[in-house]
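Support request, please re-run this one:
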Amino acid sequence: MRLEDYFDFLSPDDIRLKGHRIGIDDVLYYYLEGYTPEEIATNLPTLSLEQVHATITYYLHNRAEVDAHLSRLATWREKRYREWEANPSPVVQRLRALKAQRERKQVATA
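Re-run finished. Output below.
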């Protein structure tokens, strides 16, 4: 089996493990934080140890390309978070209001 056969290349910025919704970025964030392959497999129990090793090997063979992928993904996630934070849903607005109200009550009773 070729290494690339472990993955679905949905787009340049969406590479997932075949048969999963888990992206290679999910595995690699653990790996880059210093987790062992066994620890990664424990934290992502739907993946086999073989799939974890394949992802790490793919990364090591394509480091510059995958690092660029991870960087683009991080930028996209940060942008989406800032958009969400600037325009929270009505539910989030209500929860924030309730939290602020509770904090005011705690300060008043202290």
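The first strand starts at residue 7 and ends at 11. The radius of gyration is 20 Å.
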